[in-house]
Design a protein that fits this description.
Number of helices: 5
CATH topology: BirA Bifunctional Protein, domain 2
Shape: globular
Strand content: 25-35%
Radius of gyration: 17 Å
CATH architecture: 2-Layer Sandwich
Largest sheet: 9 strands, mixed
CATH class: Alpha Beta
CATH superfamily: Bira Bifunctional Protein, Domain 2
Length: 245
């Protein structure tokens, strides 16, 4: 690992999935060509369902008519993993990292992302853990309640550069997870920071997601042993994200 390789984070704001997907692809190409440094995009999506490249669409429980009525698109993408919900109140983080420059392999990258989610939960008052064989971030079952998933993870590596990433539930409407078998696991219980703290009466806010994003970025940079810089911070326009600091 080269600890002095800078790591640049950007708070993108609320953005559609397709727009962020295209932005990732552009940044991956530029990072692979050495035009830019490693990036971390932090954002919130409009409601959408995404399927990993080998995901079983049967895990989408809602009918096409129900999804159309709610304005929710289903998109199949290149990442690993099963079906995932993204929506308001959820922190999404996309690491655009050239692994070879940091001496990283995929498993240590996954571990760093999981550790950063766990540390973010802790800073927000919730104890979470890593569950062997089940990527992501979890809340341990207690008082007759099962293990609950609070953060999902799915990556893609192209030309030695990572993209896609994590989704951490800050204060989303958990009823939206009833549209799917989260991560392809029927009966899986999804939870959030707000749910665990008993604050579900509070409406989702992008501001809460942004605060969590700052915490996550600091934790993730720490896991990588990298100096953290912020570029275009607070600018919610994707077109300006790729501007160099």
């Amino acid at each position: 690992m080269e600890p002095q390789v800078r790591f640049a984070a950007t708070w993108v704001g609320r953005i559609s999935y397709r727009e962020a997907w295209q932005l990732q692809k552009e940044l991956v190409a530029r990072r692979a060509d050495g035009e830019i440094e490693d990036r971390l995009l932090l954002l919130e999506h409009d409601a959408v369902l995404t399927l990993g490249r080998q995901a079983d669409s049967a895990h989408v429980l809602a009918t096409p008519k129900q999804l159309t009525k709610r304005g929710i698109e289903v998109i199949r993408v290149e990442r690993g993993g099963e079906v995932t919900y993204h929506g308001p109140g959820q922190l999404v983080a996309y690491p655009i990292i050239r692994l070879g420059d940091r001496g990283l392999l995929v498993r240590p990258l996954v571990a760093a992302l999981e550790a950063a989610m766990i540390k973010t939960c802790a800073r927000l008052g919730v104890e979470a853990f890593r569950r062997d064989g089940h990527p992501g971030c979890w809340i341990e079952g207690d008082h007759g309640r099962p293990h609950r998933k609070i953060g999902a993870l799915g990556l893609r590596i192209e030309r030695g550069v990572s993209y896609h990433g994590i989704a951490l539930n800050i204060d989303p409407d958990l009823r939206d997870f009833e549209l799917i078998d989260p991560c392809g696991m029927p009966g899986l219980v999804s939870t959030s920071i707000a749910e665990e703290l008993g604050r579900t009466a509070e409406p989702p806010t992008t501001a809460a997601v942004e605060r969590a994003g700052v915490i996550f970025a600091e934790a993730f940079a720490g896991e990588l042993g990298a100096p953290l810089a912020w570029i275009d911070a607070g600018v919610p326009t994707a077109a300006r994200v790729s501007v160099e600091a």
